[in-house]
Amino acid sequence: MAPLISSYQNAEIEAGCDEAGRGCLAGPVFAAAVILPKDTNILGLNDSKQLSERERNLLAPEIKEKAAAWAVSKISESEIDKINILNASILAMNEALAALSIAPKFVIIDGNRFYTHQQFQYRCIIKGDSLYQSIAAASILAKTARDEYMRELHLEYPQYGWNKNMGYGTLFHRKALAEYGPSPYHRKSFHLKNQLSLF
Question: What does the CA dihedral 155, 158, 161, 163 come to, rounded to 10 degrees?
């Protein structure tokens, strides 16, 4: 596998941004933004989906330590139901970028959709989390923060197995939905009745 690219451009301070939990049936969507110094070397850094849970949990503290700036944001399931998951994901990314202690002048976004009123240029990059260091770092911070949050919610509603499925529509999760019905943390706009018919 080719090494990740350090930056998209070198003229301006650059941040990478990604989200986690967009396709889940329950829980918030999280986003993270990361600014890495140009000479950053984090062994094993990759798209969070290509890493094990253990690898992500080992990398997250190193990313935070070595980053020039980082921030994580979340948008609740109720807000997702109000504005839809695409807008909620974009809002989460905007909030994470606004929370950075260093204001970026250029942002690279994982995916193909984004908009902002903030004062920076940006470029959307499909599969950017497998190409650029800062996006990969953001994907890991967003994923590990969301997983930790879902484990906390699991203590309140253990019947859905969120400590393992993190709110994604696994067979176990869908069967639990059929048996117990939705919790307050389920996204009503995700057509739960249709999801229940998938097993």
Answer: 10
